[in-house]
Design brief:
The protein is of the alpha+beta class and 408 residues long. It has helices at 40-49, 58-65, 168-171, 176-186, 196-199, 217-227, 229-242, 280-290, 315-326, 343-347, 379-385, 390-395, and strands spanning 2-10, 13-16, 24-25, 29-33, 82-91, 97-109, 113-123, 130-136, 139-144, 149-152, 188-191, 203-204, 246-252, 258-265, 271-274, 300-304, 335-339, 356-360, 369-372.
Length: 408
């Protein structure tokens, strides 16, 4: 789990938080609120971008998203260097804490795009700390567990982490902490606002996770039905709680062939709908609920506006599903970051303001600022006045930044 995070010069995030040695602190479930253009999506993208360093090259990640590096640095800053720093607490598969991981990486364009700085410090549970990776440009030193010495590592000159070039089977004994950290980051997933057109598309192949826009939902649900029938029945049962008229979910096709989702309603005289006839909200709730039952659960999920297309009375269930994801046992424990514009979602965090982050960008070209809701000095007064509706206070502009035209 990411416990501390800072980012410099990434899109709207010129310096978050502003102090050089300051960090945002995160928990298992984190909600980002604020007006359009304030930096919510930029913060999710900054977290997910960490995955890019563990590809063969950062440029592969950029190409997948249709970005150029010139699109990333904050426009107000003269520097083109982007710098990430985070601390994480990771558990092994038995739930035993393996210490604190402190990782710093800076991406900079010189003649070619490359990593100018990379540092990894490990603090074991019993105390103390040890530098396991220290990189300045192409000069890379890594601590070898088999020799108990720092050694030079022959990293090729690509914009990628030195850890990306380690062989999991061969280097596990030499660099166990580095490989554990790499595996954890490789399981980050960023979900855009799920597109119903994509969710309802037929799909083929044995996919075990959803794509960024909801790709592979039919294959994933079909694989659950074929290979994990107990989990599939739990998924159906959970959806029946949300939609009492639903009697069954089925998937056409088998194996590697084309799959399509079907939904059956009614008792006695039943009607079956194919995915083209299903509502957007049902498809989105099916997608988010399926995350509870897949094998390959991400270590970190960044999710854009999960309330879209969902009836306000069902928003509570969406939040409950996300909470359950964060409460899984290792190795399936998941940390969740989400953006929202829904006052109904905010209402679900009345008793947990420490899980809500208010973002603002008050002036043109100014970098985003982030304030934890629990640090709002007026919070106690607001909660007393509005009883159990933080959402109403937010709508009235008493929490976070005000959207729309500002006073002159």
């Amino acid at each position: 789990m990411i416990t501390h995070f800072s980012i410099r010069n990434f899109k709207n995030l010129a310096a978050v938080p502003p102090g050089e040695k300051e960090f945002l602190t995160f928990g298992p479930l984190n909600v980002l609120i604020g007006p359009n253009g304030c930096g919510k999506s930029s913060l999710l993208q900054a977290i997910d971008f960490l995955k890019a360093f563990f590809r063969t090259s950062v440029e592969v990640y950029l190409q997948e998203r249709g970005w150029n590096y010139s699109d990333l640095p904050n426009l107000r800053q003269t520097s083109k260097v982007i710098r990430w720093e985070l601390k994480a607490q990771l558990d092994d598969e038995q739930g035993v804490n393996t210490g604190e991981y402190h990782y710093t990486v800076a991406l900079q364009p010189r003649k070619h795009l490359g990593i100018g700085e990379e540092k990894f410090v490990w603090k074991p549970p019993e105390g103390g700390e040890q530098i396991l990776l220290d990189r300045k440009g192409r000069r890379v030193r890594i601590f070898n567990r088999t020799t108990n010495e720092m050694e030079y590592f022959n990293a090729i000159g690509l914009p990628a982490s030195a850890m990306s070039q380690m062989e999991g089977s061969q280097d596990r004994k030499k660099y166990p902490e580095l490989l554990r950290f790499r595996h954890w980051i490789e399981r980050f997933r960023y979900f855009l606002i799920w597109d119903p057109k994509v969710l309802r598309n037929p799909d083929r192949g044995k996919h075990d996770e959803l794509g960024a826009s909801g790709e592979h939902l039919a294959s994933l649900v079909g694989r659950l039905r074929d290979e994990k029938p107990e989990a599939f029945q739990k998924l159906v049962k959970r959806l029946r709680r949300l939609f009492p008229t639903l009697t069954d979910i089925s998937v056409s096709g088998r194996g590697w062939g084309w799959r399509g989702i079907r939904l059956t309603e009614g008792n006695g005289q039943s009607i079956t709908f194919n995915s083209r006839q299903m509502s957007d909200g049902v498809l989105r709730l099916l997608a988010i609920t399926s995350l509870l039952y897949i094998d390959n659960i991400p270590s970190v999920i960044c999710l854009e506006e999960p309330e879209n297309g969902v009836h306000p009375q069902l928003v509570r269930e969406v939040v409950q599903i996300l909470r359950e994801l964060t409460q899984r046992k290792p190795p399936n424990r998941c940390q969740v970051f989400l953006t929202t514009h829904s006052p109904y979602i905010l209402d679900e965090f009345f008793d947990h303001p420490e899980q809500v982050y208010c973002l603002d960008r008050s002036r043109p070209l100014e970098g985003a600022s982030v304030l934890r809701l629990s640090d709002n000095r007026q919070l106690d007064l607001i909660r007393e006045k509005f009883e159990h509706s933080l959402g109403e206070a937010w709508t009235l502009g008493l929490i976070g930044a005000t959207a729309g035209v500002r006073g002159q």
